[in-house]
Amino acid sequence: MPGPDSRIYVAGHTGLAGSAIHRALEKPGHRNLILRAHADLDLTDARAVDGFFAAEKPSHVILAAAKVGGIAANTAFPAEFLSVNLRIAANVIDSAWRHGAAKLLYLASSCIYPRLTPQPIREEALLTGALEPTNEAYAIAKIAGLKLCQAYRRQYGFDAIVAMPTNLYGPHDRFDAESSHVLPALLRRFYEAKLTGAESVTVWGSGSPRRDFLHADDLAAACLALLRGYSGEMPVNIGSGGDIAIRDLAQLIAAVVGYRGAINFDPSRPDGTPEKRLDISRIAALGWRPSIDLHRGIEDTYRWYRENCARETAAV
Ligand code: GDP
Questions:
Q1: Which of 9, 96, 249, 303 has the most CB atoms around it within 10 Å of its CB?
Q2: DSSP 194-216
Q3: Which atom of ligand 1 lies closest to the CA of 180?
Q4: Would you report the helix, strand and coil content of the chain in percent, each value rounded to 5?
Q5: Domain assignment of residue 2, yes or no
Q6: Candidates 109, 135, 182: which one to mutate for ligand 1, based on the most atoms within 8 Å of Cβ?
Q7: pLDDT at 30
């Protein structure tokens, strides 16, 4: 269990998940957090990563760094999503073990479960069926990372554990129109439509896919619970316990933003997997529950977006 003086390295601390984990660690007063901006440490560079671990010798590693993107980015750039994420996982997990880390938490993703599988999805569903084609490259890399954790545990006794987060949202997300995930993409689209007085907003796909959305601060609390109280080979799901259709999500976002125009759907855009709601009994048994409901979480994310991305949007 990490103490206030433990040397904890948060890989990916500027991203959506990593920044929330960073905030959650700072609150109880962890004093020895180790952080590196992307410009200062390229996690795909094996020699650089090994040199960093040799010098810093973190006792705990949270691997939240990844190349991520929404359904369009995943489909357009499979080579990068596979190659970059494979290298990050291989380099960080190996160097952490080699330089004596006591524990590593790897963030996988709910998209690595089979495309069609009983809902809510239990951890045992892993590798029981074919993957969703729109994010197969990312999923394969994340499965490899998970398997590395399990292999280093079995062969070397390294305490590497795996969290399986659902679709995340919150501050520090990416809000670009084409490559982001649905929630930030729609927040921005509805906001811009309100500013320009547009008559309608287009949402990709049929609107019927269902997704399980969790605020990144809830994820961070779950990660800390795992770091403190879990050791085992089985990955642990982290989800909201519910889900919502994209059509209803769009209405919720429009209401938060105050957009009153029409909402259209573009069926030429892919729907992706029909549903992926996580069974959260395992993490619940550790005493964790999500605390931020979707409406409040969207309000919080919208506030952050307006405060931090205003210049970008003012150009509209
Ligand atoms: P996924 O869970 O990997 O499919 O991630 P996304 O967040 O990219 O997409 C979730 C669902 O939202 C899919 O069914 C998309 O087709 C749908 N969606 C609707 N509008 C948008 C949009 O503007 N951007 C994205 N990324 N997805 C959208």
A1: 96
A2: HHHT-SEEEEES-S--EE-EEEH
A3: 26
A4: 45, 15, 40
A5: no
A6: 182
A7: 84
The residues carrying an active-site annotation are: 138
Domain with 250 in it: 8-315
- At 143-202, the pLDDT tens digits run 999 999 999 999 999 999 999 999 999 999 999 988 999 999 999 999 999 999 999 999
pLDDT of residue 316: 47
Q: Could you tell me if residue 1 is inside a domain?
A: no
Nearest-atom number in ligand 1 for the CA of 71 is 8
For ligand 1, atom 13, the nearest C-alpha belongs to: 271
Look at ligand 1, atom 8, and give the residue with the nearest C-alpha: 70
What's the mean per-residue pLDDT of the chain? 96
- Beta carbons within 8 Å of 181's beta carbon, 6+ residues apart: 69, 70, 167, 169, 173, 174
Assess if residue 101 is contained within a domain. Answer: yes
Number of domains in the chain: 1
CATH code at position 50: 3.40.50.720
